[in-house]
């Protein structure tokens, strides 16, 4: 299942992220793809906010992996930014595979590693829209069908 929609601004992008939170569960992989400034972190902030995070979530660009756990959120989530990853072998050190046992993953810049690394992802690709907002193209793997369809 796939589709496309327009997001007028960062607030709309965060609101869409909040709409994902109610169906997110441990083992889920949400891949956030797109260029710099296209809305990946805004979407992740919306998800984290809806899961209970008080305050603004920092971008994990420098930390690479930012874990969240109860009571901070209603469920464990790992927010990762792979922009600085040079080799897929570095992922073993990050522990993302282990995190899937009890956490959901929000992964920015997933294209930095081979696509087969991700199991049953929800792929969201953000791009500049013609009139200033963002265009979101999404593809839901079988694990996501009937669980979430953005509007």
TrEMBL record:
- Where does it mainly reside? cytoplasm
Taxonomic lineage from the root: Bacteria, Pseudomonadati, Pseudomonadota, Alphaproteobacteria, Sphingomonadales
- Note whether Ligase occurs among the keywords: no
> What Pfam families has UniProt attached to this entry?
TsaE (PF02367)
InterPro entries in alphabetical order: P-loop_NTPase, T6A_TsaE
Q: Which family does it belong to?
A: Belongs to the TsaE family.
- What keywords sit in the KW lines? ATP-binding, Cytoplasm, Magnesium, Metal-binding, Nucleotide-binding, tRNA processing
User: Which compartment or compartments is the protein found in?
Assistant: Cytoplasm
Asked if the Swiss-Prot or TrEMBL record annotates the protein with the keyword Protein transport, the reply is no
According to UniProt, the name of this protein is tRNA threonylcarbamoyladenosine biosynthesis protein TsaE
Q: What domain of life?
A: Bacteria
